[in-house]
Amino acid sequence: MPKVFYVTTPIYYINSDPHIGSAYTTIVADIVARYKRMMGYDTFFLTGTDEHGQHVLRSAQSAQKDPKDFSDELATRFVNLWKELGISNDGFVRTTDDYHIKTVQDFFQKMYDKGDIYLGKYEGWYCVNCETFWTDKDLNKDKLCPTCNRPLEHIEEENYFFRLSRYTEPLLKHFKEHPDFVEPDFRRNEMLKILEGGLEDVSVSRTSFNWGVPVPFDSKHVVYVWFDALINYVSAIGYGRDEKMFNKYWPADVHFIGKEINRFHSLIWPAMLMSVGLPLPKKIFAHGWLTVNGEKISKSKGNAVDPRILIKAYGIDAVKYYLLRDIQFGNDGDFSEDNLIVRINADLANDLGNLVHRTLSMISQNFDTLPTPSEVGKYDDEIEKLTLETIKDYFRFMDEFKFTEALTTVWKLIKFGNKYIDLTEPWLLAHDDSKRERLATVLYNLSDLIRNVAIMLSPVMVKTSEKIFEKINQKFEGIESLGWHKTVAGVNVTVGEPLFPRIDIKKWKKVINMVNEETQKVDEKSQVTIEDFAKLDLRVARIIKAERIPKAEKLLKLILDVGGENRQIVAGIAKTYTPESLIGREIIIIYNLKPVKLMGEESNGMLLAAKDGDKLRLLTVDGQVETGAKIS
Ligand code: MSP
Known about the structure:
By secondary structure, the protein is an alpha+beta fold. The strands form seven sheets. It has a six-stranded parallel β-sheet, sandwiched between helices. Strands 17, 18, 19, 20, 23 and 26 form a six-stranded antiparallel β-sheet that branches. Strands 5-4-6-8 form a four-stranded antiparallel β-sheet, with helices on one face.
C-alpha cells in the first residue's frame, strides 16, 4: 500500500486581500506537503476560496459587481499569489464550482434524510465579517463580535437547524479515544470544555439573501456559508463523484487552521461527518495568530502587507525560514521585520552562507574536483555522529509539526560545520603536502554535511536547497540521499556567489511602513478653516464616455455630464477600472480645479477616489442625485 497524506488549509474569503497572516497557514501547509512528498507519501495538498455568504455579497454590491463576476476576479488573486509564493497545492477548490455546489446539496440532503436537519426560527446576533451566529450568552455588554470585535447585526429568520446537540456524546467519546485529534493541547482543552457544557443545535441556512447554495428541498433557503465551506474538504477530493480518489485520500491527515475557526473544525465539522457516516479527519491543528511589528494586522495600520512585497525585498526562502524558525507553530507570534533581518544576517548569510562558501572555495583552491575521503582524523566521529543525530531529530520534529525545533536542530549542525572548519584548520593542512589526504577528508566531510543540510532544508527553502545541490553537483534523490558519506566525489563544484548577501543595516529600508498614530494626528498648522474648504467646488458628475489614452497605462480620458454640461477629465484609474465598467457611474469631482494638460489631453477637473493599497476606489453618492449637485 503506498503511503498517502492529505493536508488542507482553510479556504479563504475572497473579499479580503491576502496578507502575511493569511499566507502563513498556506506556507506551513506547503512545507508539510513538500516534506511528506520527500518522505515518499502520495500527497494531496488542498487550498481554495470561500466565495458565498453575506460578506462577499455585500462587498460585491458595493463594488457594483455581480457576485459571481466579483468572485471570479478575486479568486484569481489567490491563485496568482500562491503561484508567486511557490505554493505546491495539488487542488484549488472554489465554493462556487459546480461540483462543490452539488456535493453540498447531496451532503445537506443526507443529513436531512437522517433526521438531523429541521426547520426552526433563528433569533439572535450575526457577525457578517466572520459569518458567525452569536447568542446573548456569548456576548459581553458592548455586544461586539467576540472574534473580530466588530458590531453585530440582530437577525430573525426562518432557518434550518442542524441537531448538533445529538453529537455531544459521540464527540466526547472521539476526543477521549483520540487524544491527538485537536492540537495543540490547549486548543483541544478549549474544545473539550465546550463539549462538556453540551452542544446546542446550530442554524445552517439563511433566507434573507440568496448568494449561496440553494437548500435542495427548499429553494427559499441558501446553505449557511460555513456549512458550505467545510464540505470543501471532501468535495475537492471527489466525494460522491470519484470514489476511488476520495477513498484514497479521506480521511484527511491534517486540517491546518487558525485558532479562531477551531470550533467550526473541531466540533461542527466532525459532527457533520458523523451525521453522513464518514470517518473524521485524523488531526486538526489550530495555530496562533500573527501580529506584525507587535500590532494586530489591519489595513488602517498599514501592516496588512502583501506577502509579495516582502518576498521581493528579502526572497521567499528567507521569509519562510524566518516564519518557521521564529514563530513557534501553534502559539501566537509576531512578524517583525527587524528580527527577519537578524535571521537573514546571522543564520542565513553568516552560518549557512559562509559554511557553503568557505567549503567550496577551499575545494576549488586545492582540488580539481570534490575530493575523496581517506585519512580519518580527529573530530570526524563527531561530525558524523551529529549529522546522524540531526537527521533523526529532524524527522521527529517535522512529524510533530515542531518547525522551530526542526530548524534549530539543523542549525546546530550548520554551526558545528563552521566549528569543524575552525578545529581542523584546513588552511594549515593546505600548506603541508603530507596533509593532503587529511585535507581531502575534511573537505569531503564538510560537503557531506552541507548536502545533508540541503536535503533537510528542502521543504522549507526550496530554491536554496536546489542552489546548494547545483554548487556541489549532486543529484537530489529524496530521502534516500540522507545519511553519512553519500556524497559522490570526483565531480566539479561551483563556488559562485554567496547564497545570502548580508543586508547592510545602514542602507536598509523597511518595506512595512506602519502608520504611526502620532503622525496621523493633524498638526495645527495644517488645519483648514471652513472658508478654506468652501473654496473647493465639489460636484456630482456622471461618466458618459471613458477611453484609454494610448501609451499611458494608468490614465483614462473621461467625458462627464455635470448638470447638463459635458466636461473632459483625465484620471489615473486605469489600473483599477476598465473604461466599460465606468459608464453611467456617478462620481465626485473638483469642479473648479485649474485645467491642465496630461499626455496631450485636457483635464478640466479631478475625480475623487480612496486609496486602498495600490487600488483606487471611486467616491460616489448614496443613491441617485442630479448631476451637477453641489457637495458641501
Ligand atoms: N472562510 C473561512 C474559513 C473556511 S474553512 C472551511 C475563513 N476565512 S479567512 O479568510 O478569514 O481566513 C482565515 C484563516 O486565515 C485563519 O484561520 C488563518 O488560517 C489565516 N489567518 C488570517 N489572519 C491571520 C493572522 N493574522 N495570523 C495567522 N493566521 C491568520 O475564516
